[in-house]
Amino acid sequence: MPAPRLSRAAAGLLPLSVVTALVLTGCSSDDAPPPDPDRGCAPTSSAQAEDVRPIDLPPAHVTVTDPGTGDLSIPAPAPRTDAPQRVTLTTESRETSVVGSESTAPTTTVEAVTMALTAYAGCTQPDQLEFTFGDVSSPDEALDPALDAFDGATGGVTYRDGMTPTSLRIFPPQDAEAPASRAVEQSLLSALTYAVPIPTAPIGEGARWRVERTVTAATTVEQVMEVTLTARDGDRLTLDVSVDETPTAPIFRIPGSASTLDLSRFNNTGSGTVTVDLATLLPQSGSLELRGARELVGADAERPILQQTAFSLRWEPTAGQS
């Protein structure tokens, strides 16, 4: 029988842990007007908007393994309400696939998205973040023009203690095309799934902590982050991060289908550095790079699908902003 074919969504244009059949969220941006640009915070939260359909993010469990040295204190977030945060997120997912020992050349798929975000903490709800899209672009010549529709669109993120994001909401504009909405959603979902929470216990320089998540997607994995506080300058914390993911079961669910494949081999690891500011909920700057591979087996065990994957994300202040 022919080797199983994976759709573009199933092929893994997200890091291995985040591959899933995504449902476009939210409603028209008319239902969630952007905050007044002259204000420094969001007076209301889109979490209460009519017909909002947030995407739940996997809970993160933080365990301090070494409190560090020097004066220990709790790194308590205090989002500023006098000015918004302007930051640019770039994500890139790459996958190369080959079927068993066939002589056909490998196929490679890449999806990259860059988006400028203006983020407002809630004036009276510091656990709620509202954001407005600025320029959204992609090197993909087919996708890039469709992303223009998101300029001025809105969304939000709900947080809990330790600057841990718990849900994402996006309000695509009415004229947004499905591929553009999917790409924007996947980019943000990927970035938030690799967000780095901070402890709610006293720590000092050199502190180390572990972050554990169960990420349920095409392959459900246990994600483990090892985090080290390498420097602190006032409210700014510089963190070194390593990531390792392990499947909870040898199953790959093909998104949009009831079918599954056997997952005979899997690995996904990476590392990076991020700068967190206790006065803003999104990272100030940072990058993370992951590399992985998997082997998927269908009815014909002699023709497995071999896939190599790569995922990168980068946060940086929007040009012209501090």
What does this structure look like?
The radius of gyration is 20 Å and the shape is globular. Residues 1-14 and 19-32 have low confidence and may be disordered. It is mostly beta strands and 322 residues long. Strands 1, 2, 4, 5, 6, 7, 8, 10, 11, 12, 13, 14, 15 and 16 form a 14-stranded antiparallel sheet that branches. The chain has a two-stranded antiparallel sheet with strand order 3-9. The chain has helices at residues 144-147, 178-193, and strands at 55-56, 61-66, 69-73, 85-99, 107-121, 128-137, 154-160, 164-171, 203-205, 208-215, 221-233, 236-247, 251-253, 260-277, 285-297, 305-317. It has one domain (16-317): Lipovitellin-phosvitin complex, beta-sheet shell regions, CATH 2.30.230. Residues 1-21 form the signal peptide. Residues 29-53 are annotated as: Disordered. Keywords: Signal.
Task: Provide the descriptors you would attach to this structure in a database record.
Lipovitellin-phosvitin complex, beta-sheet shell regions, disordered N terminus, 322 residues, 14-stranded antiparallel β-sheet, mainly beta
